């Protein structure tokens, strides 16, 4: 979303089926497969957005982030780059066609239209391709 906005796209909207960002890193999310004691299996040096490095002291902190640290990092990123207001929570995308996006919002089916759609899905249960119109 950040990259699209920086490239000049207007009205960028993200859809999140849960009540918060973070996906599997949000242990309050019922679809999360994580547990409170979990640590990422990749170091903070490699698990970061290029323009938003982890702020940590390697002499005093672990190189691998806990689930809470990852969740906090994602929230900080979304806050710093002002992405939260552009995310439509409790919205599950059901289908995308070149003409419309079919979704549920708070359980109610809706249909919306955008000029371009990108699908980015982090859910490992079902892989979905990147779609661009």
Describe this structure in words.
InterPro entries: FAD/NAD-bd_sf, Flavin_mOase-like, FMO-like. This protein has 133 residues and is α+β, with helices and mostly antiparallel strands. The protein has one domain (2-112): FAD/NAD(P)-binding domain (3-Layer(bba) Sandwich), CATH 3.50.50. The protein has 2 helices and 7 strands; from the N terminus they run H-E-E-E-H-E-E-E-E. The strands form 3 sheets. Strands 5-6-7 form a 3-stranded antiparallel β-sheet, with no helix packed on it.
What would the keywords be for this entry?
disordered C terminus; FAD; alpha+beta; FAD/NAD(P)-binding domain; 2 helices; Flavin-containing monooxygenase; globular; two-stranded parallel sheet; flavoprotein; 133 residues; 14% helix; three-stranded antiparallel sheet; flavin adenine dinucleotide binding
Summarize the structure.
This protein has 133 residues and is of the alpha+beta class.
| Total of helices | 2
CATH architecture: 3-Layer(bba) Sandwich
Following the backbone from N to C, one meets helices and strands in this order, namely HEEEHEEEE
Strand count, sense and barrel status of the largest sheet are: 3 strands, antiparallel
Q: Return the average pLDDT rounded to an integer.
A: 83
Radius of gyration: 16 Å
Distance between the termini: 16 Å
CATH superfamily: FAD/NAD(P)-binding domain
What is the fold-level CATH name, i.e. the topology?
A: FAD/NAD(P)-binding domain
List low-confidence stretches: 129-133
Protein name: Flavin-containing monooxygenase
GO molecular function: flavin adenine dinucleotide binding; N,N-dimethylaniline monooxygenase activity; NADP binding
Family: Belongs to the FMO family.
Keywords: FAD, Flavoprotein, Oxidoreductase
